[in-house]
TrEMBL record:
GO biological process: pyrimidine nucleobase catabolic process
Annotated SUPFAM superfamilies: FMN-binding split barrel
Domain called Flavin reductase like: residue spans: 15-159
UniProt keyword list: Oxidoreductase
Taxonomic source organism: Mycetocola manganoxydans
GO molecular function terms noted in the UniProt entry: FMN binding; riboflavin reductase (NADPH) activity
Any Pfam family: Flavin_Reduct
Name assigned to this protein: Flavin reductase
């Protein structure tokens, strides 16, 4: 291996082993259809004003909606939401088939039974190569029932105690 060329296999393996909390971002596309995706890159940017960030590939099936809408909902998932995480990271055409969500009074899809959801306005999109960093100013939200953490590790959604 050339020392100046990155070892992409090592990079990918390193981030598969880096356990991360699981969030789902939902929005409405230009046709009024709900879209959503799992985001393990969710981070708090500031408390005043309340800002959150997530990253996504601009080749992702949800990117056209995220690139053109100004509103999203960020959901934080717990261990009881493992199946929802699997649905929302699966086939994009099947993500909103079922009774795991409802249309919120804000006109955006809300996932049911999550530990927290927050809706807000996208205030910045920063393109970086073939990805983007998206900044959301949080405007409202709700706290659900507390739960054990759900993390993404080695391409699986697990509770911390399940990692072997």
């Amino acid at each position: 291996m050339n020392p100046m060329q990155p070892d992409l296999d090592a990079f990918k393996a390193a981030f598969r082993r880096h356990a991360a909390g699981v969030a789902v971002v939902t929005a409405i596309d230009s046709t009024g259809t709900p879209v959503g995706f799992t985001a393990t890159s969710l981070a708090s940017l500031a408390a005043v004003p309340p800002l959150a960030t997530f990253n996504m590939a601009r080749s992702a099936s949800s990117w056209p909606a995220i690139s053109s809408t100004d509103r999203v909902v960020i959901h934080m998932l717990g261990a009881r939401n493992r199946r929802v995480a699997e649905i929302m990271s699966g086939d994009n055409a099947a993500r909103f088939i079922g009774d795991h969500w409802h249309m919120g009074d804000n006109g955006l899809p809300i996932l049911d039974g999550v530990t927290t959801w927050m809706s807000g306005r996208i205030i910045e999109r920063f393109p970086v190569h073939n990805s983007a960093v998206v900044v959301v100013q949080i405007e409202r939200g709700a706290i659900g029932e507390d739960d054990e953490p759900l993390i993404y590790h080695e391409r699986r959604y697990v509770r911390p105690g399940d990692i072997a």
